[in-house]
Structures are given as C-alpha cells and as structure tokens.
Amino acid sequence: MAAPTNEISVAITVNGVVTEHEVEARTLLVHYLREVVGLTGTNIGCDSTSCGACTVLLDGESVKSCTVLAAQADGGAVTTIEGLADGDALHPMQAAFREHHGLQCGYCTPGMVMAAVSLAEEALAGDGGTLDEAAVREGLEGNLCRCTGYQNIVAAVVAGSVDMAGARR
Amino acid sequence: MIPAAFAYARAESLDEAIALLAEHGDDAKVLAGGHSLLPLMKLRLATPSVLVDVGRIPDLAYVRDGGDHVAVGGLTRHHDVEHDALLREHVPLMAAAAGEVGDPQVRHRGTLGGTLAHGDPASDLPAVVLALRGDIVVRGSKGERVIGADDFFVDFLETALTPDEIITEVRLPKTGDAGWAFQKFNRRAQDWAIVGVAAVGGSQPGVALVNMGSTPVRAHAVEAARRDGASGVEAAARAADGTEPPSDLNATSDYRRHLARVLVGRALDTVDTVANPGGAR
C-alpha cells in the first residue's frame, strides 16, 4: 500500500511533450503549467472555479486547472492554449476568434478558446453537429468575460465550430 | 490560493482506499473529482492532513440497469450522468439535474459519489436522490451497507458516512412515465441554487428542496398534501412548512420560503402536465 507523501513525482504530457517533475502534493495543475513547466498562456482569474480563465483540456475535456491537482493529471495529457496551433497555422477556433474579434482585453481568451474547443469537439463526437448560438451561450456558462464582450465571442465560437467540422470532412 | 500542505496517496483499489482511510481516520479526506473538496481546501476551510485519491480506482464509474432501478457507480462524473441513455430513459430527473450542476468544466470532473459525500444543502444532486428515494451503497472496513437517502444527510456537510467509508454506488428507482421537474433559481448561470426543487410524480411522489436548511430536505408537507389528493397549487403553498432556510448574501430566509413555494408550484405544474418531459431529449 502506498504511504501518503507530501512530495510526489508526476509525468504529465503537456502539448504532446512528456514533462516529469517532483512537486508538492498540493500543487495545482495551473501552477504546474505556469510555474513548473513555464507555460504562462493559461491565466489565473478568480482562482475559485468560477471564471474559467484557467481552462485547459485534460485528456481532451475542458477542466478548470485551478481546481485540479497536478497529482490528478499524472499520466494524463494536457493541452493548453500554446498547444493548439500547428506551427504558424492557427487552430480553427483561434482563427475564428481573430476573424470575429472575439476578445477585448484578452484575459479570458485562453480559457474561452479552450472551453470552446472542448464544446465543439463534444458536438462533433456526439452527433457530428456544430454549435448554434444557443448551444454556445449555454456551453460557455463557465467562462466569464469581464469586458462583457460576449457578442463577438459567441459569434467566434459558432464560426469556429463550423470550421472545425469542415476541417474533419 | 494554495491548499495547506497535505500528504497524498493514490489508492489503486477500493480495499486500499478503505485501509488508508482506516489508518488515518479523521485526518484523511477522500479525493474523487475534487470539485467540492479542493475549493474548501484552497480557502483553508478544510485542512485534511492526508488525501486519499480514489479517482483511479477501476470499475467505480458506470451506469447499469438494475431491474427496478438504475445503478450509478460512485465515481461517475456529472457529464456522464447527464448524457447517459439509460438514465435519460428511466430516471430523466437525474440526467437533467446533472446537466444543471456548475458548468461543463465542473461536470467533467465532479462525481455523483463526491457530491453526495460532501452533503452540501446547496448542491443539486443530493435533493434529486432524496426526491427519487434512492439508496446509497457504501463500503468501509466493516463491510458494505445500504443507506436510504432519508437517513444519509445528517447535518450541514455531515452525512451518515463513517471516516473509512466510501460511496460505491447510488441506486435510483426507475420512474417510468411519471412526470418530473427540476427547478433551480440562481442569479448567475453557474451559481449554486438560491433555492432548488427536485420533483417526481407517479405512485410515490417525491419533492425535495435545495438550500432550504442545513441538509437537503424532503418537502414532507407537500408530499403529504399530494398523497391526499391536493392540487399542485394547494400542495405548493406548503412548500416551506417545517423548513429552516438560511439567510445569506443572496437571500433572506423569508425570501427563500417564498421561492420554495413558487418553485414547487412550477415544478408540480410540470410534473402534472408533462409525463416524462425529458425522456425523448
């Protein structure tokens, strides 16, 4: 039986690269990404599971990385905003945010994009469909934009969802 | 915000988890999805010295047909409860309510066993299990026992679980064609309910309230009125009877009592007019 320890070693695949570190057991995934791995694209907003700024994909699904221990992601695969683009080619959801100006100050944007990618992927996996405006407004309930720039964010996610479906055909 | 330091152990089996909990007693807490526990730990409202991570224990996340009930494994995530075909057909109230918990990110991590073990009166699914008269199967060092929902929620964040017990399964009676409704009133989409109502019709009508006391509570007076043949409107007037709702930033006790009557009225209206409204969703 494994004895409880304050320090643990984790191996987490981040954006396709295996990272292995000894960390305190209390290390949150967002701190692991920002301070241990050095990827600061994932923002900390409310730090209380509300605002969604810290959203990343864990094994393909959106999670709030301020409320996941690095220990819980051990052995898993994390995708952050830095891992979406293919070289200089933006991911369709990123491109849609640029095209539709789906940001104002930009602080919520990494989390918005990651939540949107997860939402669109689930729609594709479910019935192969794309997201309409109602589905986006409902599906982004866990992400706050304090600039209140929701109109363009919603337009961007609808378009990005269509583009992601198009890229699969 | 960083939790206070703790020692972490990942249990590879249920037996190992129970042994760890038995060894560390009250100092240990069970970590499943962590979406109730970690926020408390970050605020230092909970400072367990040992976390026993049960999240990787195999075969505790499932939805199975149990004949007269649907059995849901303790580690089943809200997202999977929400989308499960068996639950949507036979216990649509549970599937619909799971889709109202938090937001998509929270539903990707939070588990049914976790939310019941946490026993927060403001959480949605404890009231749903109460309304459905579900059974909670737990395992500890003294073996397995089955606890009815009415006996499970003891006080604020306190359940009938002993420190070395883990929820392994939740059994939800099938509700057939009975009407059902879940009402949740909040100010922002992802918030906890200021007041919520889970209701199901049929031969065993069940009505339970979210955030109307120190535990999720059964609306006994409403259920009694329904059994006596009262209309939805008449029964709803009794919704706050016997409750002691909290007063806080969001609402006074009186406002909560008012909300309970209004929301139970809406819920019973749906129960009475739409049989199995979500079954085909």
Outline the structure in words.
The complex is a heterodimer of chains A (169) and B (281). In chain A, 38% of the residues lie in helices and 16% in strands. By secondary structure, chain A is of the alpha+beta class. The model of chain A has no long low-confidence stretch (mean pLDDT 96). Chain B is an alpha+beta fold. The longest helix of chain B is centred in the last third of the chain and has 21 residues, at 253-273. In chain B, a hairpin with a 2-residue loop joins strand 8 and strand 9 (158-159). Chain B is globular, with a radius of gyration of 18 Å. In chain B, helix 5 runs antiparallel to helix 8. The chains are: A alpha+beta (169), B alpha+beta (281). The interface between A and B is large, with 37 and 37 residues.
Question: What's a concise summary of this model?
Answer:
The complex is a heterodimer of chains A (169) and B (281). By secondary structure, chain A is α+β, with helices and mostly antiparallel strands.
Enumerate the strands of the largest sheet of chain B in spatial order, edge to edge or round the barrel: 4-5-10-6-7
Secondary-structure element order of chain A, as H and E? EEHEEHEHHHH
Record the strand order, biggest sheet of chain A. 2-1-5-3-4
Q: Care to count the β-strands of chain B?
A: 14
Q: How much is the radius of gyration of chain B in Å? A: 18 Å
Number of E strands of chain A: 5
**Overall geometric form of chain A:** globular
- Topology of chain B as a string of helices (H) and strands (E): EHEHEEEHHHHHHEEHEEEEEEEHHH
- Unreliable stretches of chain A, pLDDT < 50, 5 or more residues? none
Task: Report Rg of chain A.
Answer: 16 Å
- Mean residue pLDDT of chain A: 96
Computed structural class of chain B: alpha+beta
Q: How far do the termini of chain A sit from each other?
A: 49 Å
How much helicity do the residues of chain B have?
Answer: 25-40%
The DSSP helix count of chain B reads 12
How many H/I helical runs of chain A?
6
Question: What is the overall shape of chain B?
Answer: globular
**What profile does the largest beta sheet of chain B have?**
5 strands, antiparallel
Poorly predicted segments of chain B: none
Fraction of residues in helix of chain A = 25-40%
End-to-end C-alpha gap of chain B:
40 Å
